[in-house]
Specification:
- This protein is an alpha/beta fold.
- It has helices at 35-47, 79-98, 109-129, 146-153, 170-173, 179-186, 197-210, 242-250, 252-264, 284-297, 319-339, 356-365, 380-388, 420-432, 435-451, 454-470; strands at 6-14, 17-21, 27-31, 50-54, 65-67, 70-75, 130-139, 158-162, 191-194, 215-216, 219-224, 227-235, 270-277, 305-312, 347-350, 368-371, 396-400, 413-415.
- 42% of the residues lie in helices and 20% in strands.
- It has a 10-stranded mixed β-sheet with strand order 5-6-4-1-7-8-9-12-11-10, with helices on both faces. Strands 15-14-13-16-17-18 form a 6-stranded parallel β-sheet, sandwiched between helices. The protein has a two-stranded antiparallel ribbon with strand order 2-3.
- Helix 9 (252-264) crosses helix 12 (356-365) and helix 10 (284-297) runs parallel beside helix 11 (319-339).
- The protein is globular.
- Bound molecules: GDP-alpha-D-glucose.
Length: 508
């Protein structure tokens, strides 16, 4: 029997494809939208890899299959798994906790038990799919226990983990009843990637607080047999298929569509755009509040400025998300009722997803892009907007400093979304910004998004993984001077063969 195991296996909660059943009752699979898929698909296709993930619906009972050059290995989730592991522990415990408790996290032991069990199933599938000495790249907060499970079963594997969302400061992280198990799960990896330098720092600080392992800069020394192995915990800011997006935005039909959108909105002088999953981390309410006040103050006029808000449906069975939808739609209704005219609505609100071409046309039509996240791992929308505007070097990006993208897109109009007065001034300034300044800012951002595209991101990560595994000198990869909180002692947790803790050092 031929060995169909793969040398590169990606493990993520969702498969990169969505299942739809046609009128003839036959299921078909199409690429699914979303940050992670956008990011990894090109790498996987070129490597002929396997992708382990859930198909998005309960109890599908599917066998592995091939799709567009990628071997798809579906994991079955029952209704109970979805409630406890996915909607519960992943999206109602970890998601709010890791986004700085913007919404209160719920802690339930049955959810945790389900998280452990489902992580085990993903790990087992990856173990079966991986060829000897293969590389397994685990994605995101839903699967933080998988790296250790893989290492215990298959020490031959090279294991990477990438966290797409922020990693919170220890004062917040420490709420988690299972905080040590999660850290131990992650430390099964050779490389743990984060979006921002600050996230990686928060992680290594959590390691020092919870385990008697030494750290040196980005390196964590994890006991392994009689010795220790080095784990690299470092920022690898994710990006987009920049060239693909630039090409899309240059297509004549997409440009024509952008002009049509402006026309259909009643030719306002300025179009502002928000594109988000309908999620409380994205700061949609803050954005609406600022815009509503600008209209109330007479600093924006309904005939002149239109806000297009795309709010893609998300996690609709989680109560916090239902409440958010109600609040957002109430606010949109109020603003449109208060300031709308027969010919103009201040807000064009769209609670559904769009094809990529339409997204690109929206980016091209938007004079001002509003990214007002209260906390966001990266925010690919910000980078897509920049790539779409590479051709005309026009448009203004208003970007929250709480989004990972703010570390790279320094010439955006950076805002604190909690500061409504400051946000109003920033929006007002963006609407009035002179052409030359718009060009200057966009040009600098274009340079950055071209240099760090998704291919660069994945190659840098996979290269770091190879180097750690080979035991290379890691100083070039971020083994900066040791850091430890003043007077901070590691938790007295015995671990046989644990390396000594980092001596003295800077602040935490
Ligand atoms: C997580 C982290 C991190 C959205 N609506 C439609 C659509 N999209 C696409 C966007 C963009 C992606 O989905 C959203 O990515 P974001 O990065 O903005 O946000 P999350 O979904 O929260 O992603 C985030 C990301 O992972 C990657 O690491 O940046 O911080 O939270 O690509 O364009 N695409 C289409 N139609 C839509 O209606 N075609």
């Amino acid at each position: 029997m031929p060995d169909d195991r793969s040398h590169l296996v990606v493990v993520s909660n969702r498969l990169p494809v969505d299942r739809t059943v046609g009128p003839d009752g036959e299921p078909t699979w199409s690429p699914s939208p979303g940050g992670l898929v956008t990011a990894l698909e090109p790498v996987m296709r070129s490597a002929g890899g396997a992708w382990v993930g859930w198909g998005g619906q309960p109890d599908l009972g599917l066998e592995p299959f091939e799709h567009d050059g990628i071997r798809i290995i579906p994991i079955d989730l029952s209704e109970t798994d979805i409630e406890r592991y996915y909607e519960g522990f992943s999206n109602d415990t970890l998601w709010p906790l890791y986004h700085d408790v913007i919404a209160p996290p719920s802690y339930h032991r049955v959810w945790w038990d389900s998280y452990v069990g489902v992580n085990r199933r993903f790990a087992d599938a990856a173990i079966a799919a991986a060829a000897p000495d293969a590389t397994v790249w685990v994605q995101d907060y839903q699967l933080q226990l998988v790296p250790r499970m893989l290492r215990e079963a298959r020490p031959d594997l090279t294991i990477g983990f990438f966290n797409h969302i922020p990693f919170p400061a220890y004062g917040i992280y420490s709420q988690l009843p299972w905080r040590t198990q999660i850290i131990e799960g992650l430390l099964g990896a050779d490389v743990i990637g984060f979006q921002r330098v600050a996230d990686a720092g928060n992680f290594t600080r959590a390691v020092r607080r919870l385990l008697p392992y030494s750290t040196k800069g980005a390196i964590v020394n994890v006991p392994d047999g009689d010795g220790a192995r080095q784990v690299l915990a470092k920022a690898f800011p994710i990006s987009i298929d920049t060239a693909g997006f630039e090409e899309l935005a240059q297509r004549p039909e997409v440009q024509a569509r952008a002009a049509q959108i402006r026309h259909d909105l009643g030719n306002p002088a300025k179009i502002m755009l928000g594109v988000d999953r309908l999620d409380y981390t994205k700061g949609i309410r803050h954005r609406l509040k600022a815009f509503g006040e600008l209209l109330a103050d007479g600093r924006a006029d309904v005939g002149d400025v239109t806000l297009v808000q795309v709010a893609s449906p998300s996690r609709e069975r989680v109560e916090t998300y239902r409440q958010l939808r109600d609040e957002v739609e109430l606010t949109v209704g109020r603003i449109n009722g208060d300031y709308g005219t027969i010919s103009h609505q201040p807000i064009s609100y769209l609670h559904h997803g769009f094809p990529r071409e339409e997204m690109a046309a929206l980016y091209l039509a938007a004079d001002v892009m509003l990214v007002t996240a209260l906390r966001d791992g990266m925010n690919l929308v910000a980078k897509e907007y920049v790539a779409a505007r590479s051709g005309d070097l026009d448009g203004v990006l208003v970007l929250s400093e709480f989004a990972g993208a703010a570390d790279e897109l320094r010439t955006a109009v950076l805002i604190n979304p909690h500061d409504i007065a400051g946000l109003k001034d920033a929006i007002s300034g963006a609407l009035d910004m002179p052409r030359e300044e718009r060009r200057r800012r966009m040009r600098a951002m274009r340079k950055r998004v071209r240099e760090n595209d998704v291919e660069h991101w994945s190659q840098t990560f996979l290269d770091a993984l190879r180097r750690v595994r080979r035991g290379d000198d890691l100083s070039a990869l971020g083994a900066a001077p040791a850091r430890r909180s003043a007077g901070q002692a590691p938790a007295p947790r015995a671990a046989a063969g644990a390396a000594s803790t980092t001596p003295g050092g800077a602040r935490g």
